[in-house]
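Materials and Methods. Structural model of HTH luxR-type domain-containing protein. The 921-residue sequence of HTH luxR-type domain-containing protein from Deinococcus ruber was retrieved and submitted for structure prediction as follows.
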Amino acid sequence: MAAVLLGNKLHPPVLADHLIARPQLLKLLERGRDAKLILISSPAGTGKSTVLAAWLKQQHSPAAWLSLDQGDDTLGQFLLYLLGALQTLSLGLGDGLLELLRQQDAVNVEPLLIQLSNDFARLDRKVILILDDYHFLSDPKIHSAVEFLLDHLPSQVCLVIATRTDPPLSLSRLRVRHQLLEIRGIDLRFDLAEVTHFLNGSQRLGLSSTAIAHLETQTEGWIAALQLAALSLTERPDKEAFVETFVGSHRYLVDYLVDEVLSRQPAQLKIFLQRMAILERFDTSLCGAVIGQPTDPELLSRLEAANLFLIPLDDERRWYRFHHLFGEFLRHRLMRDEPDLVPELHRRASAWFEHLGWTDDAIRHAFLAGDDRLAARLANDMAAQLAVHWNSEQFTRYFHRLPVALMLLYPRLCLYYGWFLVTTGQFAAFRVALPTLGKSRVHAVEPQTIDAAFLSLQAYAHLHQLEFVDTVLAFQQALDLLECGEQCSSDVEMKLVRIGITTTLGFICPYFDLRRATVLFADNLDQSRQFGSFIGIAHGTVGLARVNHQLGQLHEAGHILEQGLFHFESSRSDLTKRYGAWNVGDLHVGMGRLQYEWNQLGAAEASVRQARASNELYGAAAVLGDELELSLRLALIHGELEAATAALHQLDRLSASIRHHDSLAKQLFEGRTMASRLALVAHLSQSPQTPPDASQAPALPSRLLAEVGDWLRSRQLDVVGLAQSLGGHHILARWLLARDEPAEAATLLGTLITAAQAEDRGDDLIQFLLLLALAFRRLGRQEEAMEALGRALDLGKAEGYCRSFLDLGPEMHILLTQRAETQPTPYLTALLSAFPESGGSAATSEPYRANETTSWAHEALNARENEVLRLLERGQTHKQIARELQLSPNTVRWYMKSLYSKLRVNNRTEALHHARTLKLV
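The predicted structure was written out as tokens:
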């Protein structure tokens, strides 16, 4: 046994001149003075000794320090140095015990420990005993001796153990008794301010904030890595460039980790660590799959306790990851030692993730294995899943990595790639890719369905480029193919493809055939609910509500929106909420439009707020545009001209941000801004106010009208065609009236009314009739004005239309008053009472509801629907009707749903009953 002790082991390390002050850690240590044990357990190079030395410098209590090493891993040697450390305090601790230790030769040290404990108890002051680098000790006798001391440690002594691995002491017992203060690696890591102070203060490297943030992220505040980086940076002329390349394979870092960490581990554990480094995160099951043999369930927790740079990812400590730099270091070692094994390890990981349905990770490891065929197969398998739970980032990542030739073997993959290009506005790329993607149909289970899907995408792309002729052609071809595919596939994914097709066609259809759009969206909604497709439910709900609003069926639209909001907001599924969030904003703003029309201004404002809140994270331009337009109108009602002007400016900026290659979206947004300008002009003409910028007061209406005029001329709206559905002619009619050109307006409105009637556009029809009534009044054609107004009242009564009348101001009030003098009705009375001119309330709480059934619902039945109704009345099934009318059963079902919609019933029995009441059969 050595009699001479190394004196430098009995003193704390000397602190550097430019030490980083860490007051929070020192406070934490100070709080632990009353505990029996302070345990600082963290990986190498995390500053354990330094922070303890700094803490001791501010202590008034005497402290004994013992730096342990491998030579102390016997009980006798350990006790020898322990007594030596205590005797540096000159408090009489352990006097005579060195001689006793020599006599007993460390066979029975309990008497020695008892005397030492008694010596501690006689102290009249607090003493701190620090055992640094305790991880060098493995002899169970040493741990038993320390345990004995801990058990009998009086309150005058605070024991501090600094170690890289948790010692085998009764930590849990101390923890329960609140006799233990633990400081871990996460507590010791430098934060960004400390990293900055270290690199630019102590080391004077003059790095930019970006470079410092990069190093802080790379090192995760690991002090040793920062010191090694700083050491390297002093040699570099271009420090910023070096920071970008500082990774786990840096030579200083490698040397440190080999010397201080890896070389101290058993050979099998080194292999295990290196192979696990291919994983971003892991649990024991995944480890076993990658290694190819079961893994001890306790292994990872033991590695964590050993501070081998494992970071727990959950409270249960099931999932872990490596420290970034340590993980990189291990991967480099793996590539050096076992390069041929790496692809196989990734394949095993891919199989494990695929088995559990974590397809994204499965594909990523397939790519890392260099196995594109496996990645393509997995991506194809998950294509339908991505369609249900849309994630364009995944699409982008996968499609851009897969060779085209390989993708052609997977038709569904090609289809969803096309969908991705179209729905992200990459129309030119879609057209270029389409011929290539189409080659995949030879591998399709249902080539007809795939063809229909591609045609629907073509139609969608044509529509967004305002190529209406081509849109109609592709749209009809897609519908024909879809109808021919009556024999519904049993393939679930093909059914999901059909959901996608009906969704796409549903968005096209309102521009040509509102009734068919209703059927498509209703079908889409039914199928989406059946398959739990969140995106399908969201699109179906929004589309169906919007179409019903356009049809003038406001109550039905409201009912659909309420159901949609209930579905998304009451769902406990995080997935539903996540993927439905964008559409919840759309649903709220749709509900707000209805509430606005019903003059429920408070409810409309609440819906706007909810839409805004829902859309905050997603920033969907369509939702934002609708919300701003509605906000502007609400602000005008309250006379808040500044708020309305601000909303218009925001709309202008939003419109300007829309990409020019998407002509449809561009035109729709521009239309919104023009309609909002006209609303502002109408407000100023009805109740002149001083604009926010008083210097522009006289010029504002003229300027706004001129801007609208320029836009209309740029669109060359001199004929009524398909483009009317984009709102251009609607704006033209209002612009002509605002310029007091009633004759031109009346001519245009006559054409628009004919078109709206033919296309069942009930909402447009009411708006056009009201504008026509104003035009006729200005022209002195009072009788025609009253006729137009009467038709609008008849159409608007059942659905409670209100703001469409009120927003036309005093002129409409005069017309309604004249009408009421000769033909008063409860609806007319309710409308007049809501006008400010009548001194009534500006808002209502409930929409007006008529008791009568409107007549225009059954008037809209077309010839084919009447035929279907007649055959239903004969008791024929839809297949029998299909044979008699030479239509596909699918087409007959569409007509039946359209029929139900027009009659506002839910099934065949109700339809026939209602039809008989109306004498339709």
